[in-house]
Amino acid sequence: MTIVSGKAEARRRLQSARSDVLRKMWEHRADYAYVLPAIAVMLIVIAYPIYYTIELSFFNTPPGLQLRDKIFVGFNNYTAILTSGVFWQVTFNTLIWTIASTFFSFALGFAAALALHRDFVGRGVLRAILIIPWVISAVAASYIWKWIYHSDFGIIGAVLVELGWAERPPNFIDSVST
Predict the structure, then answer these.
(1) Which of 142, 147, 143, 173 is nearest to 158 (CA)?
(2) Contact present, 43 and 49 (Cβ < 8 Å)
(3) What is the pTM of this model?
(4) What sign for the dihedral angle of Cα 68, 73, 79, 83?
(5) Across the strands, what pairs with 59?
(6) Residues 70-101: pLDDT tens digits?
(7) In this structure, what are the phi and psi dihedrals at residue 59, rounded to the nearest 5 degrees?
(8) What are the residue boundaries of the structural domains of the chain, listed by start?
């Protein structure tokens, strides 16, 4: 096999792989269409704020100025923060805190799992005590949603009335139609 034929073979394999990928993408086009709205929301909610934060980092906005009055300073903000001793101390403290809290959380959780894996008197009570925070967060979330949808003082009903889309707040919770 010569070098030329080896390159031709590699090129043919690459083109074949590309066509296989495109064919598979075409076969699963409905799947991509279903995922597209979620990707769009993620871009709006996550990517745009990251982009805007990076953009704002190149400007100086003194207190009292509106964002439209921002002054372009280029990399001066980065130079100022990277030459500041306070920044490096805060970064070091954050790193130590993150490592220590992660280690101790893992160690405590692992020790609790090992302890609860063994048979002993009161194991069920201890398991119930340890699961309470998980249950409480679900209960708290359900109460918050109940408050949001409440007909008298819920935020959704108030917004609908304020926008003029409803004369009075809808009764989401007790209505048979919702």
Answers:
(1) 147
(2) no
(3) 0.50
(4) negative
(5) 72
(6) 889 999 999 999 999 899 999 999 999 999 99
(7) -125, 160
(8) 1-83
